[in-house]
Write a structure and sequence with these properties.
seven-stranded mixed β-sheet; 27% helix; 7 helices
Length: 211
């Protein structure tokens, strides 16, 4: 769907707030909420409320142009239509790429190619994906909405630097091929901090080291 469950929002946007990226690519814009919240926790959080004062560049990629609405025009500097692999190479290098509740829509071979490209193009990649992926076909006539894969942190073991967080129902991963995860980011998402999110989140995160 062009929307997603709100469970991951506090983790995702705490990470974005602490990373303080100056440039972002959002893959799978959908309705546009991610762009609005990135704009809030980069520019507006820093008292740049007027559009003329905004400093963060936010680019979007969306395969289904029928989702276009006023949020796109407000929050994003530019949204390009097409699939991720085709469009990524046409955009500038950035601090952060976000792929939120989208990775499960990628076939595994395609996802690997997207991951390799992002690792060259961005300092950090932020992914959220459900632990249990339910069956889903086309939505609103959009065949890109099909769920075709399931992912866990073990699928990203080859990425040198990883932060793994969990809601109990979703994985949230911050990945980088070149830079360690900043202390100010990962200290909020260590194993013991997951106790506040409940026992399920705590037990699921135990096997994973954050660094």
């Amino acid at each position: 769907m062009p929307s997603s469950d709100p469970r991951t929002l506090s983790i995702v946007h705490d990470i974005i707030l602490r990373l303080a990226p100056r440039s972002v690519i959002d893959i799978g814009v959908g309705h546009g909420k991610t762009g609005v919240l990135i704009r809030e926790y980069t520019d507006i959080w820093n008292e740049r409320y007027d559009k003329a004062s905004w400093q963060t560049k936010i680019y979007g990629i969306e395969a289904f142009p029928q989702y276009h609405n006023a949020l796109w025009d407000y929050a994003y500097d530019e949204v390009r239509i097409g699939d991720a692999l085709s469009v990524l190479g046409t955009l500038p290098d950035v601090d952060l790429v976000v792929v939120l509740d989208v990775w499960e829509h990628f076939e595994r071979d395609y996802a690997q190619r997207v991951l390799e490209l992002i690792m060259k193009k961005a300092r950090f990649l932020l992914i959220s994906t459900p632990i249990q992926v339910r069956e889903q076909g086309a939505v609103f006539g959009n065949t890109y909405e099909r769920h075709v894969s399931t992912w866990s942190p073990r699928d990203f073991m080859d990425v040198p630097h990883r932060l793994v967080a969990c809601t109990g129902f979703d994985w949230v991963l911050l990945l980088s091929s070149g830079e360690p995860i900043p202390y100010e980011v990962w200290r909020r998402h260590r194993r013991w901090e997951h106790l506040r999110r409940g026992w399920v989140a705590f037990w699921k995160i135990l096997p994973h080291k954050n660094w």
